[in-house]
Amino acid sequence: MDKFQAVLNLHLQHPRALGYGLVTLLTAGGERLFSVAVFQCPCSAAWNLPYGLVFLLVPALALFLLGYVLSARTWRLLTGCCARGARPGGCGPRLRAALVCVQLSATAAVAPLTWVAVALLGGAFYECAASGSAPLARLLCRGRDAACEAQLPLAPCHQAPAPDAQDLLKELKAQSQVLGWILIAVVIIFLLIFTSIIRCLSPVSFLQLKFWKIYLEQEQQILKSQATEHATELAKENVKCFFECSHPKEYNTPSIRDWQQISSLYTFNPKEQYYSMLHKYVHRTEKSESIKSKEGDTVIPILGFVDTPGMHTTADL
């Protein structure tokens, strides 16, 4: 029981890190399954290159797009954006929207980079693709047997009679693994530099960030509870009036404009430090005032978590 509680506490304290770890493990396991059970190199000079590249890059592209689909920030940015007159300025200034897209891309790139790195370490996809590349074959077979270039595409299936072709297969696997480790090192260095920079540029302190996350967790829990209670009461009243042919009681429900404003992407303003769009909404000076864009509002990368907790996940949407 104590071990279970320790795991639960770890999940509550580091949900994003554990989420990335789970995505990485699932992606790596999926790649291994594909390479063993699905991938079969055709060992053809015409098909090796496209076949190997398809298995190496197309799943990575699919995972990248899936990362966008599963991100709540994507739908917060796009939902209602194109409706005529529904959200004036809803898409935000171009620079702000571009910055949000960069953040979304960085998050969505975790799974595809994992796929490519694990695939390169395994070597099967790269061996197949590289053995079908004529320029690379000429480069590898320089100074070797004359039949090396013609037989190299057969090497992944161990059908090449020339010993040089089978030796080159080991060289291709070594190249693949070196590229895989280089990719892993580059990603780790980039993440370290990027994380250090956004932490350094953080407009709030470390302890205030911790408080901020606690506040958001509590706000979303209460919002979900109150929304469920309000929706249930409203539904009961409407169904009751339908069957009794009576007039419903008046319920105060936020307007379309109200929902649109608290559903906008969060922007930070050092003059008014609100912890969420809901917090900003209830403290606006005038009811008609728009809270989505003010002078001094900026998108801060380290505060991207404001748009993603609780009810804001795609699972709840």
Determine the strand fraction and express it as a percent band.
Answer: under 5%
Radius of gyration: 27 Å
Mean pLDDT: 81
Order of helices and strands: HHHHHHHHHHHHH
State the helicity in percent bands: 55-70%
Largest sheet: none
Coarse morphology: elongated
Class based on secondary structure composition and strand pairing: mainly alpha
Protein name: Calcium homeostasis modulator family member 6
Subcellular location: Membrane
Pfam family, one: Ca_hom_mod
Membrane topology: Multi-pass membrane protein
Describe this structure in words.
By secondary structure, this protein is mainly alpha-helical. 64% of the residues lie in helices and 0% in strands. The protein has helices at residues 2-13, 15-38, 48-69, 72-78, 94-108, 110-122, 124-131, 134-140, 148-151, 163-200, 206-244, 256-262, 277-282. Helix 3 (48-69) packs antiparallel against helix 6 and helix 3 (48-69) crosses helix 7 (124-131). The radius of gyration is 27 Å and the shape is elongated. The model is unreliable at 1-12 and 310-317 (pLDDT under 50).
